[in-house]
Write a structure and sequence with these properties.
Strand order of the largest sheet: 3-4-5-8-9-10-11-12
CATH topology of the largest domain: TIM Barrel
CATH superfamily of the largest domain: Aldolase class I
Distance between the termini: 30 Å
CATH class of the largest domain: Alpha Beta
Bound molecules: flavin-adenine dinucleotide, NADP nicotinamide-adenine-dinucleotide phosphate, iron/sulfur cluster
Strand content: 15-25%
Number of helices: 22
Amino acid sequence: MLGYEQLGEGMRPMIAIAGQKYSKLFSPLDLGFTKLKNRALMGSMHTGLEEAENGFARQAVFFAERAKNGVGMIITGGIPPNFEASGHGAKLSTPEEAAQHRLVTEAVHAADPDVKICMQILHAGPLARTPECVAPSAVKSRIGAFVPQELDEAGIEKQIADFANCAALARSAGYDGVEIIGSGGYLISTFLVEKTNRRTDRWGGSFENRMRFPVEVIKRVRAAVGPNFILIFRISAMDMLEGGLAREEVIALGKAVVAAGVNIISTHFCWHEAFVPTIATMVPRAAFTQVTGRLRRELGVPMITSNRINMPRVAEDVLVRGDADIVSMARPMLADPELVRKAAEGREDEINTCIACNQACLDHTFTGRLVSCLVNPRACHETELAFNPTSVPKRIAVVGAGPAGLAFATTAAERGHNVTLFEAGPEIGGQFNLARKIPGKEEFEETLRYFRRMIAVRGVELRLNTRVDADALKSEGFDEVIVATGIEPRVPNIEGIDHSKVVGYIDAILGRRKVGRKVAIIGAGGIGFDIAELITHAGISAALDIDVFAREWGIDFRNHPRGGVTGVKPDVASSGREVFLMQRKADAVGRNLGRTTGWTHRLVLQRRGVHLLSGVDYLKIDDAGLHTRVNGEFKLFDVDTVIVCAGQTSLRKLYDDLQTRGIKASLIGGAFEAAELDAKRAIDQATRLAAVI
Ligand code: FAD
Ligand code: NAP
Ligand code: SF4
């Protein structure tokens, strides 16, 4: 059986002192045969635990930790109803497989019997990772691995029967309901749009024919599970696909699946191939809920909305506006399993907010790695990473309040160590203070707000404006010293690198040096891209204004043309600077950016006219500009400013001085290793060390 002791002392009842503040969020929802205790839903996310070793036991602890902390309903990651639906073995099609799911449902109901848990049934259709994948027509997805096999009548009947069988098995395994995903470019949605459904039989052609498959699936699932079982249909409310679903079609489909037996409609705003970001950090909070609101007025069943709802205030506002009945938060529940409890107890300033970076969740999913969370490395690692109270409290000095130092200090203090955190600068954050100044990365401030609060809550002694050296640390006699001094920008060895045209990226971000109209950026890593974004940006950040965001990505929320997208060239504001973003490598520029977000950054810069150049040798910088050889040919860029973003080197002087004096010290974050450093690695390494020190 499960080790429920791993759930910790948080089993205590919630004290709902913020009930008034979030009265909608914490109001129950009566579904007739059952009741949701509140409107906070943990949305479905594939974590990789579904296929991992001991995956069910690990999922049980993962979900139970969220259940005991106040969430009203949980939807699991997508479970395929048969082999061809995914290409991997995590399917649910036999009673033996159903028995394993009991670990999950029992753990959740033991954590709180009032929490509902529904299993998502996901048939990936043409996106399944097997040559046996199926679809209404043999149309390969741009992001699929195989050309799907076109289903014949018998094949369609088999898929419908497998959905119904899977739902009945989910019921037998103790789930309170199922969610059927009818969006995203997966099987059901490929029946719905002409682009992927070329059939001329009763399953293709008119919209009535194209929606026959989802309607039949719902009818058969309802018949298999009986009336008193939650049945949710995830609809492509706005699929962001040129030629995608029209508004009238979404309404017609919604009405038809409700008539066929659905209790709740969940709105999805995605087709994985579409060229519109819908969950990245550059997307404004709750940008898409208005679409749910308009649909809600037509359908008359409880509706779930989602996407970039990461704080209780945002969720409450969405509900108060009447945009939805239930608010789905998926990634925010990775970032903080206690989100709902903290909201209920008026401790929202303690919420570890999801910053929508995708770096440890979706980027991992799409590269076959187990999901976690940049700001919470325990996510999906609950059974191996624990913060148990220490039996030997130590006096620990942490030097540097960047992400690594902050994560270490607050975790070690949580365990009962006596921690002093030294920071040379006037505020905590390190390079995150630079990151949050980039348009589209405003969310990064939430991480700093969280750490500021945790420093106070956990009693870390913070000494700002204090650049410590080895002698000062020695004189205070700490038991342990953690060196989290970070990095310094690399100064490349180029003739004229000290010319007055040359500006470091820190000075550029902080506005300490003027940047001209024509600019070369040396280095096209994450920071080079961020600098290009910063200096070509004009007006309000699209991440803070839904109308600007809609204009930049060609979305028409008001008229809802097919897919919700206008198809006309997006209107992207630009500062008018001419910018050359360069790297030495011959690879395509931006290739190493995040798997699920890199394309958005490349597209934005291209639309602003930024020149992306690879294969560049830097020869010299002088009054005339930057002299280079590009793919073998000499070229002068007559720029006003050259901004250097050429990576970093570790700042280790303090560590070396401590070693010389025989003082025991540990290195974390950028001070440990600057190459390929990011905040995900810095926080993960720091947290893991703090868990065992
Ligand atoms: P740092 O953040 O460099 O912090 C080190 C701290 O130590 C500093 O505050 C410094 O003042 C202090 N210090 C140094 N010496 C001393 C001393 N002797 N005494 C006291 N204090 C001292 N990463 C991502 O994962 N995703 C992103 O989207 C992302 N975007 C970024 C955008 C920009 C513009 C920048 C600059 C960075 C970005 N990063 C991003 C990188 C990320 O911020 C770093 O990987 C991370 O900050 C490294 O953390 P760290 O704690 O090791 O070092
Ligand atoms: P980076 O990603 O390693 O990029 C450094 C760039 O400098 C590369 O383009 C590199 O390309 C170039 N370079 C390296 N040595 C050079 C030299 N001696 N002379 C000239 N050019 C040189 O590092 P970064 O951009 O500084 O970012 C630091 C870390 O922060 C990264 O690891 C990144 O993951 C993280 N970050 C992430 C994001 C995000 O959105 N996820 C955003 C910002 C930063 P060539 O060698 O080909 O020239
Ligand atoms: Fe949110 Fe980033 Fe964590 Fe994913 S990795 S849950 S996007 S903070």
